[in-house]
Design a protein that fits this description.
It contains ten helices and ten strands. By secondary structure, it is α/β, with parallel strands linked by helices. It has a single domain, classed as Rossmann fold, CATH 3.40.50. The strands form two sheets. Strands 6-7-8-3-9-10 form a six-stranded mixed β-sheet, with helices on both faces. It has a four-stranded antiparallel β-sheet with strand order 2-1-4-5, covered by helices on one side. Helix 4 (about 120-130) packs across helix 5.
């Protein structure tokens, strides 16, 4: 039995006026994968996410979501999205953690459907999955950047998505909390069965969590298993990025005595 494919992209090209930002992208994401997308600033990562989320209309190529051509895909509740928010969120926003997460149910219930008593367990479960249940009565503005980001992930989870897309989710998260944040994502992938697509600059930190890596810089320079990506020669990686890079995983640092842990 072949593994179900959540996202299938063939020959995707996208241009802003005369500038080509994505060229002939072929990428597939199987069910249960944890894909890390890496690449320099301006490499087309955000454009790719916007196309997958239906925010930009694809210009050339084919995209299928859950086996359906994107133009005919309507089950958007199957896809959760968490943007870079920690450095721009209004901390004075007068809402509890529970209320913020419950607001994510509009995607599932409809814009004008009221919150029902039987919906509470769904909210609590989402908060449990990100380790924030004990904070549900706290005002969202009282939380740290990392805690707020967990709440916004829970908000995306209440519609019970099969695919969760995260754009640089550790922006604004304290360095000492980044590792536990990634462990929480790993748990969502492994134990909650959610397929994850993560845009990150910090592939070294998360190399023991993601199952696959896609290296994007207008073209798709690499797409495969994480282990194969981390074994790429540095001169080849520098060619992907257009400048010198050093890829050292925390995993290698701990077990093989590397000098440090780098990012892509």
């Amino acid at each position: 039995m072949t593994q179900e494919t959540i996202v299938e992209i063939k020959g995707l090209t996208y241009r802003y006026e005369k500038e080509t930002v994505l060229e002939n992208i072929n990428l597939s994401i199987p069910k249960g994968a944890f894909l890390g997308i890496v690449g320099p600033n301006g490499s087309g990562k955000s454009t790719l996410l916007k196309i997958l989320l239906g925010l930009l209309k694809r210009q050339q190529g084919e995209i299928k979501l859950f086996g359906k051509e994107i133009n005919r895909f309507h089950d958007w509740q199957l896809i959760g999205y968490v943007s870079q928010k920690a450095n721009s969120f209004n901390t004075g926003f007068p809402a509890t953690v529970f209320e913020v997460v419950a607001s994510g149910l509009t995607k599932k219930l409809g814009m004008f459907r009221f919150f029902r008593k039987e919906d509470k367990p769904i909210v609590v479960k989402a908060l449990e999955s990100v380790g924030m249940k004990e904070f549900m009565d706290r005002n969202i503005g009282e939380l740290s950047g990392g805690q707020q980001q967990r709440v916004f992930i829970a908000r995306a989870l209440v519609s019970e998505p099969k695919l969760l897309i995260l754009d640089e989710p550790t922006v604004g998260v304290d360095a000492e909390n980044v590792q536990t944040f990634y462990e929480m994502l790993h748990d969502l992938n492994l134990n909650w069965g959610i397929t994850l697509l993560l845009v990150t600059h910090d592939i070294g930190t998360i190399s023991d969590k993601v199952t696959h890596v896609a290296c994007l810089n207008k073209h798709l320079h690499f797409h495969g298993k994480t282990e194969d990506f981390m074994n790429q020669e540095e001169n080849k990686m520098s060619g992907f990025y257009g400048h010198d890079v050093h890829v050292l995983s925390h995993h290698h640092h701990e077990h093989h005595g590397e000098k440090g842990a780098g990012t892509c």
